[in-house]
Amino acid sequence: MERFVDLTLNGVTYGMIYAVVGLSLVLIWRATRVLNFAQGAMAMLTTYIGATLIEHHASYWAAVAVALASGFVLGGLIERVVVRPVETGPVLNPVIVTLGMLVALEALAGIIWGGGLRSFPAYFSQVGVVVGKHRVAFSHFDIYVLASIVTVLVLLVVLFRFTPLGLRMRASAFAPEVARLLGVRVGRMLTLGWALAGVVGALAGVLVAPKLLLSPTFMDAVFIYGFTAAVIGGLESPLGAVVGGLGTGLALSYVGGYLGSTLEALGALAILMVVLMIRPQGVFTRVTSRQV
Amino acid sequence: MTGIEVNDLSVHYGPIVALGGVSFVAEGGATTAVLGANGAGKTTLLRAMTGLVPADSGSVRFGDTELTHRRVEDVVRCGVAHVPEGRGVIEELTVEENLRLGGLWRRRSERDSFAEVFELFPVLRSRRNQHAATLSGGERQTLAIGRALMAKPKVLLLDEPSLGLAPIVTRQLMARLASLSRDEGLTVVLVEQNARTALSIASRAVVLNLGRVVVADSAEVIAADAQLRHHYLGF
Fold first, then answer.
1. How far apart, in whole angstroms, are the C-alpha atoms of residue B158 and residue A32?
2. pLDDT single digits (tens) A243-267
3. Which chain B residue's Cα is nearest to A164?
4. What is the CATH number for B64?
5. For A224, what's the count of Cα atoms within 13 Å in the CB-facing half-sphere?
6. Are residues A182 and B101, on separate chains, in Cβ contact within 8 Å?
7. In this predicted structure, what is the pLDDT of residue B169?
């Protein structure tokens, strides 16, 4: 029972991180219909930037703020410079371009920071808290992880549901041509969508980094699990990405805990296959035919 | 009241001439119908007027404002609203969000045109919190027009508003448009395949065929010309 509780808590923490990565993919997908394979690599880069600042004696919070800000800039920049020119071409072009970005960013990180492993400090204790007589697998740092992710989710909901800017962004994503006729600067909204996704991805990076070790490829696995989360949700639905992330995190934690950690990646693959076979449109997407 | 003046507008899709030098004037405060068969270039004409398709040559002027080569997003800021073909409501948003979007580019203090639009189209008030996807065809068209009016435009470009609507709904809609033009001084350019209905509310009409103007005259003259009706308008 104790083991089950530990695995569940562990699954929830990781699940929320996958959820955030999935959410950043959903933001980009909804804005530009591009699956951004470089999302993990972008988060890796911004985390390295944060780590470098900390190594140069910047405070943890300053480093996190700079990492998030560079995620914003990087996301917007990539949309404007790299994705925009290929958007109107065949659908495969943006896929190839973002895959290229993935390779390029990882190579760039290798050139700047080397391929070796680095640590990223956790601001709060990573030792599990004691509940009753037991020390559970849930630390102060995990509480901080969950709290910051929930805060970001709430902020995004408020932005999209209740602000004029959010309304413009949704309109640009759903019906760009109509939005332009109504005076919405759609190009700017799409850039902003990528920039926000960059922030959300950067957050996932700095939150997961203390649990792993920093290397140019350290976000690859996190990206794949986040991708699984987004696909389970149907790529369209932010809520779907969150539920998908939690589900993936829990499932992988149980698989790793009861069947052996080497089977984790296989577990993600199995989930992905089952979901795609039973509901290829994702669990949270209503299928609607769209008039063009 | 300012009218809109189209001068020698040409659009090519590759080797195909969609518009071959179209000129006409839509008088201020009046309704001008643009008629013609499928493929005559009616939709392309409207889309070229607001910049959704780039014009190869020619110009579009609204009073002293040059609209040619302006960005689509800026045309509505000049007072020209375009309701595209196929209703153009955003199904994923609620009725109220659709409407609010229409006035969002305006200054905050000037944004609230809800009351006027609801007075004009009461059905929208009762549906305001529903998703646009749940509306009927007529309600969607009403929403699309109401949303355009949120921008308080001086010119309204309408692309086939009667498409897919029951005849009685079409008649109601046309009566509403006629009163908008008459009472508010709105300049309306009405693209229609349904020539009979359009001619009943328009004061002038332009007939297009294969991207060129066949005739531009008052609505009565065109409605009375049996040969023209037979050849180009199908009634």
1. 28
2. 999 999 999 999 988 988 888 888 8
3. B104
4. 3.40.50.300
5. 14
6. yes
7. 84
Residue B9 has pLDDT above 70, yes or no: yes
Picking from A23, A21, A19, A29, the residue whose alpha carbon sits closest to that of residue A190 is A29
- Average pLDDT on B80-88 reads 86
Give the per-residue pLDDT at B190. Answer: 93
Cα separation of A184 and B102, whole Å?
9
| In-domain check, residue B16 | yes
pLDDT tens string B114-139: 888 888 888 899 999 999 999 988 88
Which chain A residue is nearest to residue B90, measuring alpha carbons?
A: A175
Residue of A13, A7, A22 lying closest to A224 (CA atoms): A22
Q: What's the pLDDT at A292?
A: 39
Closest CA to B55 of B197, B213, B211, B224: B211
Residue A290: the pLDDT is: 44
The string of DSSP codes covering A64-77 is HHHHHHHHHHHHHH
B153 touches chain A (CB under 8 A): no
Assess B86–A contact: CB distance below 8 Å, yes or no. Answer: yes
A288 interface with B at CB cutoff 8 Å: yes
* Rounded-to-integer distance, Cα B55 and Cα B51, Å: 7
- Residue B144 tokens read as 């699309």
Closest Cβ–Cβ partner in A168, A177, A186 for B104: A168
Q: State the residue range of the domain holding B33.
A: 4-91+148-233
pLDDT in tens, A41-50: 999 999 999 9
How confident is residue B87, by pLDDT bands cut at 50, 70 and 90? low
Cα dist. A138→A151, B55, B125, B210 in Å? Answer: 19, 63, 51, 72
DSSP A259: I
**Which residue has better confidence, A219 or B166?**
A219
Instruction: Show residues of chain A in contact with B91, CB under 8 Å.
Output: 174, 288
- Minimal CA separation from B64 to chain A, in Å: 20
Low-confidence ranges of chain A (pLDDT < 50): 289-292
Is residue B48, in this structure, part of any structural domain at all?
yes
Pick A171's closest partner by Cβ from B50, B75, B93.
Answer: B93
Cβ within 8 Å of A, B 167-226: none
Question: How many folded domains does chain B comprise?
Answer: 1
Is B122 a domain residue? Answer: no
| Interface contacts A/B by beta carbons within 8 Å | 64
DSSP H/E element including B81: strand B80-83
Average pLDDT of chain B, as a whole number: 88
Closest Cα in chain B, distance from residue A188 (Å): 11
Chain A residues in contact with B159 (beta carbon < 8 A): none
